Amino acid sequence: MDFLTYFVNGLSLGSIYAIIALGYTMVYGIAKMLNFAHGDVLMIGSYITFVFMSQMGINPIISVLLAAICCTFIGVIIERIAYKPLRGANSLAVLITAIGVSYFLQNIALLIFGANTKSFKSIVTIPPLKLFGGQLIISSESIVTITLCIVIMLALTTFINKTKMGQAMLAVSEDRSASTLMGINVNGTIAMTFAIGSFLAAFAGVLLCSAYPTLTPTTGAMPGIKAFVAAVIGGIGSIPGAFIGGLILGVLENLSKAYISAQLSDAIVFSVLIIMLLVKPSGILGKSNIEKV
Amino acid sequence: MDYFKLKRQKKARYNLSIYLMIVIAYAIVMFLSYQGKISSLLNGLLVPFCTYSILAVSLNLVVGISGELSLGHAGFMCVGAFTSAVFTRYMKFLGVEGLYLFIIAILIGAVTAGFAGLLIGIPVLRLKGDYLAIVTLAFGEIIKNIANAIYLGFDENGAHFSLKNTMALGLSDKGFVVIKGAQGITGTPHYSSFTAGVILLIIVVTIILNLVNSRTGRNIKALRDNLIAAESVGISATKYKLIAFTIASSMAGVAGVLYAHNLTTLTALPKNFGYNMSITILVFVVLGGMGRIRGSIIAAVVLTLLPEMLRGLSDFRMLIYSIVLIVVMIFTSAPAMKQYMEVLKNKFPIIKNLKAVTLKKFSKEGE
Question: What 3 state SS string does B24-57 have?
């Protein structure tokens, strides 16, 4: 039963990674850049929820939605100020800028909220699920996280495949200059991608902090990096890939924490990334691209 | 005068200016300390100046000259620091002390970090751009995590190694624990000095300048400027990128040795060997100018000194760094900004001479 508990906890953690990874994978697929600040948008989202919920006493669900809206704006503003001028610049410059943005968000949070750990009150209030006569307890956070993750993934897939904006995103990710010729507003599409990614990041942040109730300015950094790892494992640019990658990573992390070593779990997760990149650099569901002249 | 001769002379002047800068700075500091005019604050910063300069210069070899973003540079520093500290600490335990051990320690640090760089580089350099950044970051974290988890001890039966705790080492009564997991290594001998740091810095700079101006260096730069074109004329991308990466890692290891022997306790914290450290080094490189050796040294020294001088602003230090990082990247790399600068240059010819201000740019167009 221990194994099942770890496994379910892993699935829950993996679902959070998957939601973050969706943001990464969409931005990477469409804007062709690694948005290092994504994890920190998540952290900002958690802080905003914390302020609304614990300090202003607003209903948890409304706080989360408000935080998600704030994050959407933050994401779009970041894209507008920091990334848009660099469109067409080499990827090293964009990456360094993204690191700068990530640090900026962390330090802004540090200045506003201080370095002290905030204890985040879980937003989930339903009772935990007990299976096999109480031997396997699935926390309510896990249930909500896994459900929400599946819902988000389905909604996003529908959005991409059924709406005009979604199709525009696919087109831009395929060939940016050709889609400009087809009359697609490339800048608007990229901004929309950032908006969706940041919106989802706020949810991921709240779920993460509900499961692991400590909130510091660096809360988002590690999950952010791991979510990117998940996106890479699943195949960057692919939405189901991000889901699968996230789940694999979450389960792997929890199992290695339980059975191998708590301190080395990160090392194990990253080793998987390296092995994956060596064996199949395009990821599980990704398409391989050959660079042409 | 023909073009190449002119270019050579310019290069020689640039190289000379780096050495002169280091030597003059060294002479001034030595003179002041002889007169007793150096505050204890500055005195404590002298070795870090050298450590960070070496780190910045070596990362510049990867980021500026080889054009690959490595976010795990502190990890190699960690390797160098820990392996060399284990050596000197064990020697101290055996009762052997002396400056010649420091030289051996430097060699150990350089070789192990270089070897780590080689091991990591072989798989990683097959990847490009963003992937490389994330994998080097991952490696940096792995190295830090391992350094935090290791327990290592020695007794008459040899070395004992564990990932659990001190008891699991199973040492005999005469045994002695070198690495105590997260508590790190305590009691490393204090071998580092400003003189040693400056000598190491000069050696590192010499190696890099010679490399950059050699055939190998030109190959590395060709791969940076246009990978496909360079490969099509028969330059092996993996080989030359690996050379640059391994040399840079090995130098980071040397910086680690210098770092480790300047402190009595060596622990692997995010602050000194983690992601933050790697970013700080990257900031030195970016602000000093990518590909500019002199700039890296100046940036490392100034940015190490500034936060200490402006204690009151220490909370804002990283915030200011991050803003500067974004602004510098936008000003130097944004296509619109480049055009604007061209217009300005034509209007005001004086700007053309301000080359030091406009950071050395490199782009895929191969302009």
Answer: HHHHHHHHHHHCCCCCHHHHHHHHHHHHHHHHHH
Please tell me the distance from the alpha carbon of residue A250 to that of residue A267, in angstroms, as a whole number.
14
Phi–psi pair at A217, nearest 5 degrees: -60, -20
Q: Which residues on chain B are in Cβ contact (under 8 Å) with A89? A: 333-335, 363
Query: Smallest Cα–Cα separation from A193: which of A160, A169, A164, A172?
Result: A169
- Please report, for chain A, the start and end positions of each structural domain, with discontinuous segments joined by +: 2-279
Q: Count A/B contacts: CB-CB distance under 8 Å.
A: 135
Cβ B363–A101 below 8 Å, yes or no? no
Residue A15 sits at φ, ψ, to 5 deg, of: -65, -40
At position B213, the amino acid (one-letter code) is: N
**A86 chain-B contacts, CB cut-off 8 A:** 329-330, 333-334
**Of A201, A256, A264, whose CA–CA distance to A227 is shortest?**
A201
Name the A residues in 88-147 with CB < 8 Å from any B CB: 88-97, 99-104, 106-108, 110-111
* Distance to chain A for B119, nearest Cα, Å: 12
pTM tops 0.90, yes or no: no
What is the topology classification, in CATH, of domain B11-148+189-317? Answer: ABC transporter involved in vitamin B12 uptake, BtuC (1.10.3470)
* Segment A260-275, tens digit of pLDDT: 777 778 888 888 888 8
Q: Read off the pLDDT of residues B230-274 as tens digits, 9 standing for 90 and up.
A: 989 998 888 899 999 999 999 999 999 999 888 888 887 777 787
| Structure ipTM over 0.95, yes or no | no
Contact B17, B258 (CB under 8 A): no
CA distance linking residue B85 with residue B97, whole number of Å:
13
Rounded Cα distance, A137 and A125, in Å: 15
Tokens 């300069």 locate to B53
Name which of A230, A166, A161, A93 is nearest B290 in CA terms. Answer: A93
Question: A161 CB contacts (<8 Å, ≥6 apart)?
Answer: A167
CATH 3.30.70 fits A2-279, yes or no: no
